[in-house]
């Protein structure tokens, strides 16, 4: 009797322990959540419609008493795109993973006792199908939503500044440039269509794209930048340390348990879930993305932070070189804003790295503390949220005003994704032109051809070469 009681108690304890270990995370049902606030936190794959400011806010900010807009300068990322070739191969495999998840829930019965997918989300996942039109042939192409991102952006700014963004194209008044990619060229065409009407781009001849694009893709031709980017792969980098942190590992484990797996999913599988969620949400802003239902809000916060840390050191304030890489673009902005002559409208179409590097160059969205592997909770209110600063179709617009004020005849407003970009030395995004010139004086006098790629890597390389020469000379003299 006693032995039987002991065995029964042991079984109860083991069962309770197993049930406890089968708990995952907070209960969350994506399908029934009317707000889905986490969709703003999808890092550089955030939908522009979700990240942008409201029309009413930008309309209020654009009206400056006693001032008239006279010049418009824009740096814009391409709109929503399809995945790249490598991503497509990885995303295709989600069909098998989806089938395993359904098997876990309905046959193996290994779903967690707490934090499981709700019935609505499970049905959403069951009905998901890979779109075979998403093929390597069209890798990284602009989508229909991406076209609309830029077309409606043009319509928005034309509505704010009709005297500057006039509806009839004049080659002396307008200057457009894009990089040598389909997605930026299509984004330019969509923007032009928004300004001047259907297929207006057919009547516009652009300047040739230089083989080395210092203005819009300087990072591609900067060895020091490429070398710094590789640091994210080092085990000592903040990005890799965060991936190895208990918080990140627990998040990956929770995602795995939530989907009914008794083992931890591989990094490539987590990456595919995260990417598919974000792509589908950006392609179809008003629809539910089945793979987003897999992730709770807290899990999204962790995945977003990992990407923000990576970009902080690749394109942000984590490396001193990054404040110089976009030198040509910053200098170009100042040159055009300084001039009272044509062109009046300057619009460039580039990529998320250039937008981030430009913001770093002008000192925008800078936090007091650096993003690190050990300060996730302290940085929840950080400024460096790539979902807010570099979503699809991210754009920075600088508008110059002619004002009646004899003390300050020119003022500048900066908009980031249709929200006033508020520097400490400006008033709700409205800056004195003299202060802009003073703050960005470096880019007025810089020799960008020489300076844009001079940084820590280059500075470290020269002493190393010099030391090698000295050592070789000593060895030679001794012999």
Q: Would you write up a description of this structure?
A:
The protein is of the alpha/beta class and 479 residues long. The chain has a single domain (42-452), classed as Rossmann fold (3-Layer(aba) Sandwich). It has 21 helices and seven strands. Strands 1, 2, 3, 4, 5, 6 and 7 form a seven-stranded mixed β-sheet that branches. Helix 7 (144-160) packs across helix 8 (182-196) and helix 11 (246-258) packs across helix 13. The longest helix has 23 residues, at 456-478. The protein is globular and about 75 Å long. The model is unreliable at 1-20 and 456-479 (pLDDT under 50).
Secondary structure elements and pairings:
Elements: H1 2-21, H2 48-51, H3 55-62, E1 67-77, H4 85-92, H5 94-108, H6 119-126, H7 144-160, E2 174-178, H8 182-196, H9 223-230, H10 238-243, H11 246-258, H12 267-283, H13 297-314, H14 322-325, H15 327-338, E3 345-350, H16 352-361, H17 386-389, E4 395-403, E5 410-416, E6 419-420, E7 430-432, H18 433-439, H19 441-445, H20 448-451, H21 456-478
Parallel strand pairs: 1-3, 2-3
Antiparallel strand pairs: 1-4, 4-5, 5-6, 5-7
Helix pairs in contact: 7-8, 11-13
Keywords:
479 residues; alpha/beta; Rossmann fold; seven-stranded mixed β-sheet; 21 helices; 7 strands; 47% helix; globular; disordered C terminus; disulfide bond; glycoprotein
Q: Give the number of DSSP strands.
A: 7
Helix content: 40-55%
Annotated CATH architecture: 3-Layer(aba) Sandwich
Q: Gap between N and C termini, in Å?
A: 91 Å
């Amino acid at each position: 009797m006693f032995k039987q009681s002991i065995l029964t108690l042991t079984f109860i304890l083991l069962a309770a322990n197993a049930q406890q270990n089968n708990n995952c995370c907070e209960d969350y049902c994506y399908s029934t959540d009317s707000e889905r606030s986490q969709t703003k936190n999808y890092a550089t794959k955030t939908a522009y419609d979700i990240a942008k400011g409201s029309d009413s806010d930008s309309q209020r900010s654009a009206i400056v008493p006693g001032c008239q807009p006279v010049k418009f300068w824009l740096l814009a990322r391409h709109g929503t795109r399809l995945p790249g070739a490598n991503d497509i191969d990885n995303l295709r495999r989600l069909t098998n993973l989806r089938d395993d998840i359904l098997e876990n829930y309905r046959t193996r019965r290994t779903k967690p006792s707490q934090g499981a997918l709700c019935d609505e989300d499970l049905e959403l996942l069951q009905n998901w199908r890979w779109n075979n039109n998403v093929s390597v042939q069209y890798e990284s192409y602009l989508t229909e939503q991406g076209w609309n991102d830029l077309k409606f952006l043009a319509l928005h700014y034309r509505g704010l500044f009709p005297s500057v963004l006039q509806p009839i194209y004049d080659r002396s008044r307008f200057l457009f440039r894009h990089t040598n990619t389909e997605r930026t060229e299509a984004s330019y065409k969509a923007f032009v269509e928004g300004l001047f009407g259907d297929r207006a781009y057919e009547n516009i001849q652009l300047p040739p794209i230089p083989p080395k694009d210092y203005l819009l893709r300087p990072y591609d031709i900067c060895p020091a930048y490429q070398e710094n980017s590789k640091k994210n792969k080092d085990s000592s980098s903040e990005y890799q340390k965060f991936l190895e942190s208990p918080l990140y590992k627990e998040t990956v484990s929770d995602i795995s348990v939530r989907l009914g797996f008794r083992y931890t999913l591989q990094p490539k599988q987590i990456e595919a879930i995260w990417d598919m969620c974000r792509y589908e949400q950006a392609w179809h802003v008003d629809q539910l993305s089945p793979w987003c239902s897999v992730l709770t809000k807290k899990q999204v916060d962790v995945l977003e932070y990992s990407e923000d840390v990576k970009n902080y050191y690749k394109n942000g304030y984590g490396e001193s070189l990054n404040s110089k890489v976009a030198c040509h673009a910053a200098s170009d902005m100042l040159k055009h804003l300084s001039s009272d002559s044509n062109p009046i409208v300057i619009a460039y179409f580039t990529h998320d790295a250039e937008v981030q590097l430009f913001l770093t160059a002008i000192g925008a969205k800078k936090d007091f503390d650096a993003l690190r592997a050990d300060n996730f909770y302290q940085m929840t209110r950080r400024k460096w949220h790539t979902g807010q600063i570099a979503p699809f179709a991210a754009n920075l617009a600088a508008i110059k005003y002619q004002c009646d004020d004899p003390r300050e005849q020119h003022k500048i407003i900066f908009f980031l994704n249709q929200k006033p970009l508020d520097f400490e030395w400006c008033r709700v995004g409205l800056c004195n032109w003299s202060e802009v010139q003073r703050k960005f004086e470096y880019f007025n006098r810089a020799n960008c051809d020489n300076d844009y790629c001079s940084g820590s890597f280059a500075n470290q390389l020269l002493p190393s070469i010099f030391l090698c020469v000295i050592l070789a000379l000593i060895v030679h003299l001794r012999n």
